[in-house]
Specification:
Largest sheet: 8 strands, parallel
Shape: globular
Strand content: 15-25%
CATH superfamily: Aldolase class I
Number of domains: 1
Number of helices: 8
Bound molecules: D-xylitol-5-phosphate, zinc ion
CATH architecture: Alpha-Beta Barrel
Number of strands: 8
CATH topology: TIM Barrel
CATH class: Alpha Beta
Strand order of the largest sheet: 1-8-7-6-5-4-3-2
């Protein structure tokens, strides 16, 4: 299977959200990446349920919702109702991660776990068989347009090997600083899903930038 491109709505023009959603619908992108920030787990606040619902209303592709919030168990049902297809929580934000994963799946969504740049992939060993996606943060979460952290390659390689030995079906998603210079190496190292905010939305032609990121 070819890799998945998930443009990050965080970098879209919120005054023209329908236009940007339709651009992604028509492009070669596969998913919408939707970043939720609570101002506590990360030092920024993005948007909440009304905006997710507005995106869902126009989107013809799955919503990959990335929760950068403390104690996400409180809102799993609400994100299901808002239209999330993939729901990713941070390992660092969950006291009972296994329970949270089971709750996401029981609601009929794919379950993802994100890890910050300082978090070892080894901490995922005992949940790899339960999850559909690992989101490897390649920047410190909170903002779009940051510089890619090079240690990510090492983590992706180690994670790919863990997935192979545990026979897990989890996809590896890379989030932060993905661009036209690093995306191929990320795929070659084992990534399946690439999130791209700045690379898509600061391009003169965003759908062309998506098509470039799709090239193998
Ligand atoms: C960062 C978010 C990312 C962000 C990526 O905290 O989780 O999804 O939108 O944006 P770029 O691709 O610009 O680094
Ligand atoms: Zn994200």
């Amino acid at each position: 299977m070819s890799h998945i491109i998930a443009p990050s709505i965080l970098s879209a023009d919120f005054a023209n959200i329908q236009r940007d959603v339709e651009m992604i619908n028509k492009s070669e992108a596969d998913w919408f990446h939707v970043d939720i920030m609570d101002g506590m787990f990360v030092p920024n606040i993005s948007f909440g349920f009304p905006v997710v619902k507005a995106i869902k209303k126009h989107a013809t592709k799955p919503l990959d919702v990335h929760l950068m919030i403390n104690d996400p168990d409180r809102y799993l049902q609400a994100f299901k109702d808002a239209g999330a297809d993939v729901l990713t929580v941070h390992l660092e934000a969950c006291t009972h991660l296994h329970r949270t994963i089971q709750a996401i799946k029981a609601l009929g969504m794919k379950a993802g776990v994100a890890i910050n740049p300082h978090t070892s992939v080894n901490l995922l060993l005992d949940v790899l068989g339960d999850i559909d996606l690992v989101c490897v943060m390649s920047v410190n979460p909170g903002f779009g347009g940051q510089k890619f952290i090079e240690n990510t390659y090492h983590k992706v390689g180690a994670l790919r090997e863990m997935i192979r030995t545990t026979k897990s079906n989890a996809m590896i998603e890379i989030d932060g600083g993905v661009d036209l210079n690093n995306y191929r190496k990320l795929i070659d190292t084992g990534a399946n899903v690439l999130v791209a905010g700045n690379t898509v939305f600061s391009a003169a032609d965003p759908s062309k930038a998506i098509a470039e990121l799709k090239k193998i």
